[in-house]
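Design a sequence for this backbone.
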């Protein structure tokens, strides 16, 4: 690394390490990411368990198709509202 960049990098790291606001932000962000990761892993396990059962598989397929249809409709409505009269 170029000496001035290394000095700047070191200074920035020291400033952030000693900044209480940044430390709170980093801690809160880390907690939220851990929480979301845990929820994501839990939901992935639930979906895996649902897919293991043939009856649940059909129900899950129906839910997915319903979601896709609703998503398409909402997306279409959103596009129509956003571009109304702008074409």
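Sequence:
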């Amino acid at each position: 690394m170029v000496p001035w960049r290394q000095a700047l990098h070191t200074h920035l790291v020291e400033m952030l390490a000693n900044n209480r606001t940044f430390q709170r932000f980093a801690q809160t962000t880390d907690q939220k990411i851990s929480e979301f990761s845990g929820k994501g892993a839990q939901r992935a396990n639930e979906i895996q368990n649902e897919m293991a059962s043939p009856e649940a598989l059909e129900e899950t397929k129906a839910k997915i198709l319903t979601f896709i249809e609703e998503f398409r409709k909402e997306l279409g409505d959103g596009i129509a509202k956003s571009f109304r009269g702008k074409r």
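Residues 15 and 44 are 39 Å apart (CA to CA).
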